[in-house]
Every structure is written in structure tokens, then in C-alpha cells.
# Entry
Amino acid sequence: MSQNGSVLIIGAGIAGMKAALMLAGASRKVHLVERLPIIGGKVIKNEESFPNMECSTCMVAPVQQAVLQNPDIETYTYSTVDRIDGGPGCFSAVIRKKARYISLVDCIGCGMCFDPCPVSLANEWEEGLMPRKAVYVPCSGSLPNVPVIDASSCLHLSGKQECSLCAESCAFEAVNLDDSDQVIEIEVGSVIIATGADTFDLSALPNLGYGILPSVYSPFEFERLFASNGPTQGEITLRGSGTVPRRIAIVHCIGRTEAGYCSSVCCMYSFKFVRFLRHKLPEAEVFNIHLDVCTPGKSYQSFFTSLDDRDTTMLFTPSIDDVRVTENGPSLTLSYPAPDGNTREIEVDMVILAAAMVPDRGLGEIAQMAGIQLDRHGFVMTVDRESGSLQTSRDGIFVAGTAEGPKDIQNTVIQAESAAGQALEAMSAAAAVNKERASGS
# Structure
């Protein structure tokens, strides 16, 4: 197999996109594979990003556009990598591009196909806070702004009944219900794993009431509740009742014991939520139930200290594991161990659980496919972490972003650029070795 200077990147979140742009800037061909029908990752679920409270969409949209418009970046949305063979400088990979049933070329993003669809189900991207159709875009402002048809829920494609209403509504003939998966084989010189992370499964802790009590929220549920392009257009109202909460508790470190580490970002996004609430609900009382406070660095510490007693009441507990949330009429009772050994209670309308960052639920399968090892926490293992190497246990395959471990956006970008640089260096080294062997030296 001949030497190849292109790169395969798995995952088109902020890490994958930044690495792709850096490599394309170095005149390398990039194959960027994303399992979702859109690029941008979980960052685009956020309304604002700490510590500068920047508009996340404003920050990420130019990056998304740059990726989609770069001729050296081949973007495969709604796709997975099925196999990676070979070694540094001469990998071969198989990409499975799932049928979208909507043409990326012919569709103009008008959305006329949505309303006729008779199917309605929970929108996973919007954390189940609003419905979607079988033909949909995950959220307002999705890029590419082209719908996809969920074959498992589509009446026609699942074989439940004949239905072609979406196709009939499209004036541009962009809907193709006979579309099929494509299998694409490529050759690359190196691979970067940038598949992101998930949050701790809050339903595993029934004492907190998540999934049982409607006014208990995950962090991403609250992000989408606050977002101007979210299910409520940014109005903070309680699920089910539609009322405005007046007393809100944010509980830190959820899942930290089970995960076995501090995720380093949960405190910061919890304090970001305080800013959100102060902005949208200035008369609301906000409580932070915390174990310790992790705000590393000057900017993060400044962000934290800028909050005062008017913004939030800090309530220390020596044991987050013993926090309980129970129903109390229309409100909730949150009980927690106090430092003096007694149990304290507060009455609130809403509870937000600051969940730990954990490995992506599909990472194990990707690691097995790529032939790389995971660390004891389930993130991608690097061979020499102390040196800053992002080399995985398989030569020529690197990792970037939260696939390697919990981190914020800033450190994700730094690591993505480092992974791109290390991939370039590895390909250059492999090319030199190949040239030396060819010359018989």
C-alpha cells in the first residue's frame, strides 16, 4: 500500500472540526466522519459558553461553515467508520454513509416536508423537551441545514404503511425514499478519534428523582430550556405545569463517586446557570449544593468570585451521595447532610443536577473497531500522557477532546490542534522511513 498523507477524523464536534481545519490548512486531505446528521457536537446545544459568556452559536457557526466550505475536507454526516486496517502512513478505512433520504444537493432547507409527516416522537437532540417528525433537523440552525428521515420511525421506510407525504410536499424533488446506504473505502496516513463524551446517567440515582419528578433537570435539559432556539424559545418554565420557578437548587458533583474522578467543568457550568437564572429570573432564589468547588485558573476563579450572595446561596455538604429530592405538593423538598451532622431541608420549584462527564456510550465499540485501548475510566488511553502525547495504543491513531477525558472547550481546542500536529509529525516520520526503505539504505 502506498504512503498516504490524508487524515481520517472520527467525530465532528469542536475537536474534530478544529483538527480538520488545521490539517486542511497544512494542505492535507481530511475525511471527517460524523454519526449525527449535523456537525458541531454538543457545544451547539449551549446558549452561552463560560467564562466570557460568549454566544456559542456565534462562536461555532463560523467553524462549521469553514469546515463545510473547505475543499480539502470531505464531510460525511450520518456516517460511521466500520473498519480500520493497516498502519501509520498507510491505513485503509471503510465508511458507512447511512441513507438520509433527502438530497444534500437538491434540498434548500425550506422545511415544507415537516408538517405533512404524520409521525411525532420525542426529539433526542432537544433532550425530549419537544417533539419531532420522522423527517427532521435536530434543532434550529442545524448545519448542514438539510433534513434527514429516521427510517426506524418513518411509516413508509419501516414498512408499517404506505406514506409519501414528505416527497409529495417537496417542490424540488429532494426526497428520495429509495435511497440506500453507501459503503466508501478510503486510504489515509493517520487517524484522529474525536468522538466526544456523554453525561452521567442520572436515572441511576433514584434518590435524586430524575426521570420521576418532572421538575428535576439534567444539565443539557436546562441548557436547551434557556436557549433562544430551544423548545421554549428561552423561556424558563417548568415541565408539565408551564409555571415559572422561583426557587431553584443546583446540585454539584452528581456521578462523581460512581465515575471516580472530578470532571473539572461541572462547577463552572453550574455557575453559568446561576448567571442564566439571574438574567432571566432576577427575583428567583438560587441555591448551590456543593462538595468542593473546582474553578482552576485566573479566568475561572474570577468568574466564580464575581457571583455574590444576591446571585446564589452556597450550601456546603460533606456528602453529595446522601442528597435526596422528594415531591412535596407542587414543589420539591431537597434534603442534604449539613457540616454539623444534621440533615437540612430546603423547598424548591426546580432542581438542576450537575452531572459528571463520562465516556461516550459508543466509545467502547469504536475502540474495538479501531484496535485501541481505553483507560480504567473508559476514555481513550494515551501511551505517554505525562509528555502531552495524544498517541493511542495503536501507532498512527491519535485522540482529541473529551474522548480522551473531561475538559472544557478551550482545552478541547488546544488538544485538537495538538493532535493534528502530532498526526502530521507521525505521517512525516512514516514517509521518511518508507523512503529510506525504498532506497535500500
